[in-house]
Specification:
The protein is α/β, with parallel strands linked by helices and 436 residues long. It has an eight-stranded mixed beta sheet with strand order 1-5-4-6-11-9-10-3, with helices on one face. Helix 1 crosses helix 3, helix 6 packs parallel to helix 9 and helix 8 packs across helix 9. The protein is globular and about 125 Å long. The termini are far apart.
Length: 436
């Protein structure tokens, strides 16, 4: 090792370095294995190779050498020749250019179709309006709602379910009576001798009498428990229009967000009835219409899809509503059933189809369930059920074989009589679920 007093010098072609005691600085000579070590090194070392003008070698100097003795390499002019980009870079630039053009085309198309400024509305909002055809403000719930859930055991991995509907059903509500309107009791039960009347708003011609005696194709609850575990949820109850209320909230347009006084209380009555028979139930009390009435079915569909994925044992989806029936003079119609001097709000099943373009081709399975329940309830109380309403829109019925929309009374009904009717309906549904 050299001591700290040893001086080093730069050897250049015009200034050979002095000979040191035994060693002179040379550039790396490569592999010297096997060469004999000379006894005496020559006084003048061979000249160093001339460094390339464009890239002089970097020399590391000891601190004892002054910077003024460091030779400065001659400057060379910059290379002004064109640099050709490799083909991956060219391809990347072409893709970026194509993406920008595509984005501009999409923006322009949506701007022309929506008729509103993208800066004012935003691309996501305008796109949703363009897809769903709503003239109102588009709102989507930011997260899935909390639910009142009876937790099942040993739930298996979700099965594949149908895609979301391409066409969202219209959500417009029929006119409700004025707050000070007169109320008229009316029997709207089916005129059919067997109770199997049909209000048909489609080109289909189903035979309700034949469907009512057709065997159920839905798994019995015992079969579901053998697959998914004890108390697995077979029924999902929700309320697409959860703020719907009755006469005690006439001054607020027959709507309230108080879940103990709106249609959610009717759904709770049904859930309690089913749970008393040890049937697993999920009752969702999210008010899907609170922020946007027009987007209520879309928001409810998002919740239904995730719930069915998480709980593949669900076979029945019941969307509980209250109807709105008003006479031409503004009188509120109260659909009423009297049974043993007890007042019941009349019920109506609404069954969706694929006629509106939703792709719900299995709607006849839903209609079979409605016909079977209608027949059973007619036997229990001949004036409880109104005619089944067959509609063109699917109303999210494509997500389960036992999916029905149930109208419990109307705006002119009372909450108590709607709850009373739902308890009767629940008992008939229990027999259907258990296969009795």
């Amino acid at each position: 090792m050299l001591d700290k007093n040893t001086e080093f010098y730069i050897q250049t072609p015009d200034k050979p370095g002095p000979t040191l005691s035994g060693y002179t600085l040379y550039p790396d000579a490569g592999d010297i294995a096997g060469l004999d070590t000379p006894e005496v090194l020559p006084e003048t070392p061979p000249p160093l190779p001339q460094p390339a003008a464009a890239s002089p070698p970097t020399v590391f100097l000891p601190r004892s050498v002054p910077k003024s003795d460091i030779p400065t390499p001659p400057r060379t002019p910059h290379n002004t020749a064109k640099i050709s980009l490799p083909w991956p870079r060219r391809l990347f630039r072409l893709l970026c250019f194509f993406f920008i053009l595509s984005a501009l085309a999409v923006y322009g198309n949506l701007l022309l179709a929506g008729g509103r400024s993208l800066l004012a509305k935003g691309l996501d909002t305008l796109a949703l309006q363009h897809i769903f055809g709503s003239a109102q403000e588009v709102t989507v719930i930011p997260q899935l709602p909390q639910t009142e859930t009876q937790q099942p055991a040993n739930i298996k991995i979700a099965e594949t379910i149908p895609p979301a509907p391409d066409i969202v059903p219209p959500a417009s509500e029929l006119p409700v009576p004025a707050a000070d309107a007169a109320i008229m009791n009316m029997d709207l039960s089916s005129d059919a001798s067997d109770g199997l009347g049909l209000i048909n708003e489609t080109p289909y011609t189903p035979d309700l009498a034949a469907l009512a005696v057709r065997p159920s194709v839905i798994d019995s609850y015992d079969a579901l428990e053998s697959i998914y575990g004890k108390n697995c949820p077979a029924v999902l109850i929700l309320h697409t229009h959860g703020t719907e209320a009755f006469t005690d909230h006439a001054d607020t347009g027959y709507h309230t967000e108080n879940r103990s006084e709106n249609i959610c209380a009717v759904g709770k009555s049904l859930a309690d009835t089913l749970r008393a028979a040890d049937i697993g139930v999920i009752h969702c009390t999210e008010l899907f219409d609170a922020d946007s009435f027009d987007m209520a079915y879309y928001n409810a569909a998002r919740y239904i899809r995730q719930t069915v994925e998480e709980h593949p044992s669900i076979r029945y989806i019941l969307d509980i509503h209250r109807d709105a029936i008003t006479a031409e003079d503004g009188t509120g119609i109260r659909p009423l059933s009297l049974q043993n001097d007890t007042e019941y709000a009349q019920l109506m099943f609404v069954v969706g189809t694929d006629h509106g373009g939703s792709g719900h081709t299995d709607w006849e399975i839903n209609l079979t369930l409605a016909a079977r329940l209608q027949s059973a309830l007619h036997t229990e109380n001949p004036t409880l059920m109104r005619d089944i309403n067959l509609r063109s829109a699917s109303f999210n019925a494509q997500y389960a074989p036992g999916a029905l929309l149930v109208e419990a009374g109307a705006a002119a009904s009372s909450l108590e009589e709607a709850i009373r009717s739902m308890e009767v309906f629940g008992k008939a549904l229990i027999k259907e679920i258990l296969g009795e």
